[in-house]
Amino acid sequence: CGDSSDEKQDSFCGKCDFETDPCKAFHELNLHPGWIRRNGQSGLGPPYSDHQGNESAYFLSLSSEMRPFSATLRSKVFLPTDNELICQITFHYWLSQKHGTLMMGLQKHSEGTFTNLWQVSGGLQDQWKAKTIRINSTEKYEV
């Protein structure tokens, strides 16, 4: 949340950390093939910790068997926003491939089209980075 209320236990805004499941934000059926829930101790290679340096904390990762294919994560359906209620999504990402693109987009519930909101491509970066996206939509949508 913009006012940091998502840091509180009884927050209206949701916070997702993947510790117990693929996250309340993502329906289990929408965790498409290729995504795995793992931590730095899994022995699967970097990253060896989450974005805060915790080796036992969980995060989502693309399975090495999926390369060079693509995999999709789809959120739950969010309600329309207005001037007072704006959706702000902050996520941490790690790129360890020389080639590839990570994209985040919006699909309005009434349409089948995907609107690209952000993307980053290629380059061996081997470090966690954070990105915050603000979304305004007059219709129900998924990201």
From TrEMBL:
PROSITE patterns: MAM_2
Transmembrane portions of the chain: none
Cellular component GO terms held in the UniProt record: membrane
InterPro entries for the chain: ConA-like_dom_sf, MAM_dom
Domain MAM: 14-143
Domain of life of the source: Eukaryota
One Pfam assignment: MAM
Name listed for the protein in its UniProt record: MALR1 protein
Naturally occurring in which organism (per UniProt): Upupa epops (Eurasian hoopoe)
Originating gene: Malrd1_4
